[in-house]
Request: fold
Amino acid sequence: MVINSAVEPYKDNPLGDGGQRKKIHPHKFTMWIGISSIIMMFAGFTSAYIVKRQQPGWTDFEIPRVFWYSTAIILVSSLSMQAAVKSFKERAIVKYRNLILLTAVLGLVFITLQLLGFQQIWKSGVTFSGSGAGQFLYVIAGLHILHILGGIVTLLIMFFKAFSSKLKSYNAVPVEVASTYWHFVDFLWIYLFIFFLVIH
Reply:
């Protein structure tokens, strides 16, 4: 009888935990909905870019070398973000804070390099009024920079919260959500960078 009673909770659910492992956290679900919307938005802009470039008067542009540097920076920031998640789960809070701050700083460096690159493109004659490329290029790039800024603000908030004495639960969900978003905007730039390399 003792054995039967121990097995009984697992009778209807092989997981034995009420199916909780099959459920996604509401915050993660909301994040994935947001990411899906962002993907559709950028897919629409890049598709319109392809259609628009077939029209007369289109002006191409050269990819500034600084974009290669910014791409390397954003890839390194993904590594530091992943290391920050690992440190948080290991409760190495000092290391976690340093890595979160490093990721935010790398994000700012990325934005700075992006602005320098687009300044070079602007000086080459690709502006809002002078080229169809400029009309789409700056809108697409500007939206991506705004999403990076949103991630930086989130990281800085997490950095300062890590100094709070109330940090006792070590709930990894907010850190995982921020990490997933950061990886997404990083690889979104990789997609845009390859897109511009191929279609510019």
Observations:
- Helices lie at 2-7, 26-52, 66-89, 93-123, 132-161, 173-199.
